[in-house]
Amino acid sequence: MTILSEIIDFNKDFVQEEKFKEYETTKFPDKKIVILTCMDTRLTELLPKAMNLKNGDAKIIKSAGAIVTHPFGSVMRSILVAIYQLQADEVYIIGHHDCGMSSVDTKSIVQSMVERGIDKNLFTTLKYSGIDMKEWLRGFNDVTESVKSSVDLVRNHPLMDHKVPVHGLVVDPHTGKLDIITSGYEYLVEN
């Protein structure tokens, strides 16, 4: 049996037994927040529990490393849609200790791609097309600095509502302990 067939079998029972009812909510976040966090599997249930969030409380965007890599990329677009269309009033960017993006090895990833059948000549084509694989797949050395960088990009984005606080936090993926790196409230008071 494949993983997909297991999922579909479970889903049939889930729907038939109406287990979905306990998760019913609207598309608008009850706590009016949008969270950008890492896709790390340890955070799937831990982070919402550590923040006292239930289904419907927040918009949660996940990406490798909780990094905003481009000011007009899909992560920033999602944050802006959450604010302007879906009633989010605060942004939380939450990195975590022991993140896989802190040790990204571009050469190793490219080698894995080649081993799985990607033509290695494609990387030369990409390079001549202006795609720098090292920059595109970049991670970070310090999670605190990475969070500060993403917060700064969001906070200073030309389309950002500057009355919306943008917070930066780091979570411990073992205990759920949250450390504030930068409070968006303080930034609003100072400016």
TrEMBL record:
InterPro entries: Carbonic_anhydrase, Carbonic_anhydrase_sf. Gene3D superfamilies: Carbonic anhydrase (3.40.1050.10). Pfam families: Pro_CA. Its cofactor is Zn(2+). It catalyses: hydrogencarbonate + H(+) = CO2 + H2O. It comes from the Bacteria. Its EC number is 4.2.1.1. Keywords: Metal-binding, Zinc. Belongs to the beta-class carbonic anhydrase family. This is carbonic anhydrase. It comes from Sporosarcina highlanderae.
